[in-house]
Amino acid sequence: MHPAGVPAPLAHALSALSQWLRTGLAGSPPPLERAALAGAAADNWHAQLLTAASSQLAQVGALCSDCAALQHGIGDRPDRPLPKLSETAAAAMPARGAHHHDHGMLLFGAVSTGLSVFCAGLLWIFSGWQDGAGAVAVAAIACCFFATIDEPRPVARSFLRWSAVCLVVASFYLFLVVPHAQSFETLAGMLAVPYLGIGMLIARPGFNLIAMLLSVNTASFANIQSVYDANFLGTFNGSLANAAAMLFAPLWALATRPFGAGVAARRLIRASWQDLAGAAAWPGADHDAKLGARMLDRLGQLVPRLGASRTGPDGFSELHVGFCALALRRALPSLPTAARRPVRRVLALVARHYRARLRTGHTAAPTAELPAASMQPLPRSPALPGHRDEAIAALVVLRVTLHEPNAPGANDSGAGVEH
């Protein structure tokens, strides 16, 4: 918090934006009086903070306008014109290959699932169990479920419990409900009652695993044929094979996956560090277009894993640094020659900082050189002032994100910003 506090022009801009949001995003976002904000600065660091605040407010207004335009354009209405998005949204459209894939973890899951099916097949062959083929098929499906789970131990108990429920439901339908079906229409109506409800539960994340088990295992246990022929001994033998498969899958996952969500989270964090080092060092429009979307996709994968492991950085700081590096890269060609050198210096130090993290394998505070470089003055560009403001905002966010309050060079006085 700066000692000068929030000046009146910034408070007025915040109030106007809040009122615009309350009125349902009617019209364009309220304009920002950048000249008044610049004149209200108490010192150079305060001026940088105000520039960053005005840039963030402009981005919030543009984002809300884009959301309203997209919401208005949703639907199959050929007479409705396509919504016009802001330049920022058009530039941020994700390109192909913008999703993050951890190929190492994907390979491990595929190999582990393949080995589980191979071992289950060997057990079936050596046992000579006639109904063991169904157990191999069910084990393959169940192992595919567990291949996508980072922490199989908490899920294993629920998996076995609901597998038993599936066995009871399948037996109830097979011996008490299905015998009353005299036609296909009657059978479809009887099966529609539970399966429509199960289909609705699949779409809800909290019931996804339970609903998948109910849908797959109930159909497998019941094993309804074109001609009804249900004898207790055959049903018991088939259900025993399926139950063995349901027991085999979680035991295999527990034995072959000793690590949990913490390892996957650390791999995602390291991938973010590698991308950040590249974003600060390698210019390129195609690289920049993919990086922002990939960072967001990686954050979506990281947050639930951090909730399970409760360790490591949260990933939001890496997202902030990534977007700041992209903003500096975009603004660099439009800055005056005197301003390009300090910006390049900051990008080089950011790349060096994340390469050092990759080498050590853990988070580390940046050197005192980076805060000093991020506070270098940027001369005004009469032709393109907006790019200079965008660069200053990125530098401020970088400083706030990367540095501790008591770190050297992190005082509130700041470096000069020429007006």
What does it look like?
With 419 residues, this protein is mainly α. The chain folds into three domains: 8-91, no CATH class; 103-256, no CATH class; 261-402, no CATH class. The protein contains 16 helices and no strands. The longest helix is centred in the N-terminal third of the chain and has 30 residues, at 44-73. The chain is elongated, with a radius of gyration of 29 Å. The model is unreliable at 405-419 (pLDDT under 50).
Overall radius of gyration: 29 Å
Global geometry: elongated
Number of domains: 3
- Number of helices, counting only DSSP H or I runs of 4 residues or more: 16
Helix and strand arrangement:
Elements: H1 8-22, H2 34-39, H3 44-73, H4 87-91, H5 103-127, H6 132-147, H7 152-177, H8 184-202, H9 208-222, H10 232-256, H11 261-281, H12 285-309, H13 316-331, H14 337-360, H15 369-374, H16 385-402
Helix pairs in contact: 1-3, 3-16, 5-6, 6-10, 7-9, 7-10, 8-9, 9-10, 11-12, 11-13, 11-14, 12-13, 13-16
Put the structure in a nutshell.
With 419 residues, the chain is mainly alpha-helical.
Task: State the main characteristics.
mainly alpha, 419 residues, disordered C terminus, 16 helices
